[in-house]
Amino acid sequence: MLPYDFDYYLPKTVGEGVRLFQQLEREGKNPVYYSGGTEIITLGRLNLVETNAVIDIKAIGECKELTIKDQRLIVGSALSLTAIEEENVFPLLSKAASGVADHTARNKITVGGNICGQIFYREAVLPFLLTDSHAVIAGKSGLRQAPIHQLFNQKLKLQKGEFLVQLHTDRRFLTMPYVCVKRRQQWDTGYPLITVAVIKTENETRIAISGLCPFPFRAFEMEKAIQQGGPLGDRIQEGLRHVPQPVLDDVEGSSGYRMFVLEQMLQDMLRELEGNHP
Amino acid sequence: MISARLTVNDEEREVAFRPSDTLLFVLREKLGLTGAKPGCLNGDCGACTVNVNGTAMKSCLMLGVEGVNQTILTIEGLKDSPIQHAFIEHFAFQCGYCTPGFIMNINSLLKKHPNADDSTIKEFLSSNICRCTGYQEIEKAVKSLLKINREDKAGLQNDE
Fold it and tell me: Do you find a cis peptide bond into A246, omega within 30 degrees of 0?
């Protein structure tokens, strides 16, 4: 049970949602956009999220789109993770999504909610970082579209009153070879330790990581190092020198253990993706 | 407070609640349907699982107001179902606290995947926790129904 009250709004259009936010903000209601709402409910229960108004974006058509148009995959931000898994138009995204929480929770957690959440794993962003996707953002000046790399730096940088409407991904990425692995310290259901997603494009191998640092990231520097010639083990060692800081050090795993696990994961995943290496 | 109409177990119920009330709270405290159990209240244990439009949902992770215009099924609405019988037959519960959540999750599993393979079963069942650790019996109960589904399907094909 949430220890405080809020008003609930269910706009049908992007414009209505944005206008509601402005109006509620003027009224001092500290509104928040609500998609799956799982984090608002669980953190709200602990008084870690407080609001007097939630604006549920699930009735906005654009936020529920899942289609291919003009050679781009369009993923609505309010689609549940299991809906994305079941449709499986973007297998790398399905795989990354399937590692979040558990199956029943993923019936409620949405892709946009996961990407915009406070919890630091936010694995659903990894496929979009690997594929140079674009995000469609709604705000008081209407819709704007920007590369995910411009908007996502440790977290999705939105202006007050903006919300994520869609993610657009070039269709050619949908069928590229990939490996996505989630490692947990214990069993198949424990809290995540590290998730690594790797995709092989026409001319490079791209890497994105969640659970290593307190934010998910595309490992551009690591990719460059790993692209160089030489034995795989040496290239990975060089790549590990470019891991951003800080590396997480918590009850799920010390920073040293996380780096060890990452090294082993990269060995296995790159071997699988690139073929046999010395 | 708002007043809203919820469709629960094939009945339309007019109910007054706060928009910030979870569906679990509305079901238990406003409608007297105490089959969905409060466990972790954090989306981890699955004891509060119900079906919304046939999909398993943790009712502690859903607002009551999100249930408007949806079809909600709780354990009370699931009368005499094969999975309930299978749980009895295979002793798939001990203290019973997690049982309604498991059954509602499995009910959704069987509807969506009547021929579920082992990995799908594992995928669904790992959403629920049984502190008595009766997992093997629960798995046996699920598999007994899948076996019946397969045999029924084979029987139908033979009849054709």
Answer: yes
pLDDT of residue A188: 72
Residue A276 has pLDDT above 60, yes or no: no
Of A6, A107, A189, the CB nearest to B126: A189
- Where are chain B's structural domains? 2-159
Per residue in A208-236, pLDDT (tens digit) is 999 999 999 999 999 999 988 889 999 99
Interface mutation target, options B45, B61, B133, chain A, most CBs of A under 10 Å: B61
Burial A48-63 (b: 16+ CB within 10 A, else e): ebebbbbbbbbbbebb
Fold of B2-159: Ubiquitin-like (UB roll) (3.10.20)
Q: Is B90 on the interface with A (CB under 8 A)?
A: no
Which one, of A9, A10, A20, A53, lies nearest residue A138 by Cα?
A: A20
Please name the residues in contact with A102: beta carbons below 8 A apart, sequence gap of 6 or more: A189, B46, B126, B127
Reference A23, options A1, A52, A66; nearest CA is A52
